[in-house]
Specification:
7 helices, mainly alpha, about 0% strand, about 85% helix
């Protein structure tokens, strides 16, 4: 009975993560498309997109933490919510200065949120599939953030296009995790049907 409850909980958690990862991937794809089209046309649209990106990360992590056992159980995500919220404000303030400041703020956020994502993925590694892709994503986010900080020091002014590759890779990793979980769940269900 207890084992059946554990399996049901595991299935429920993996179904949630699958939907969550697909949602995160879809958001990032839409964001990249918007950044490459309307984001190139006016500064106001680009600014809104640059503010929305870390704000979305804060909201998404808050929902996932609440759905996955609560804030106390998901400290790395709780910290990430605070960091992403603060960096949303920092990006908004940096937009009043110049794009180098914005890229610097994005760099700090990418490093910190990447490390928190890495911590979350490592914690989930034993209980949920697809976490290897989230580990890679978190690590790559921290590396990209370091590169953003370096680029922010350059004399040429960056644009929203500088962040597009970062968001595109995020979409790829979330999609990869979602597909991996889908296959894992499908295989498990097939094994159950055979019993």
């Amino acid at each position: 009975m207890v084992q059946e409850q554990n399996i049901a909980t595991e299935n429920s958690n993996e179904q949630w993560l699958k939907r969550y990862y697909f949602t995160r991937a879809a958001f990032s794809v839409i964001w990249v498309a918007a950044a490459l089209t309307v984001g190139q046309e006016t500064f106001a649209v680009a600014a809104a997109l640059l503010i929305i990106y870390p704000a979305w990360d804060a909201v998404a992590n808050a929902v996932d933490a609440a759905r996955s056992g609560g804030w106390g159980h998901n400290r790395s995500q709780a910290i990430n919510v605070v960091a992403s919220s603060v960096m949303t404000i920092a990006v908004a303030v940096a937009l009043t200065m110049n794009m180098n400041w914005v890229l610097g703020a994005f760099g700090l956020w990418a490093i910190f949120s990447g490390l928190m994502q890495l911590g979350t993925a490592l914690r989930r590694w034993k209980t949920n599939g697809g976490q290897w892709a989230m580990v890679l994503s978190g690590g790559q986010s921290a590396v990209a953030g370091t590169l953003f900080l370096f680029q922010a020091q350059m004399p040429q002014q960056p644009s929203i296009s500088t962040v597009v590759g970062y968001a595109g890779l995020g979409a790829f990793y979330f999609l990869l995790s979602a597909i991996w979980l889908s296959v894992t769940i499908s295989r498990r269900n097939m094994r159950k049907a055979e019993i």
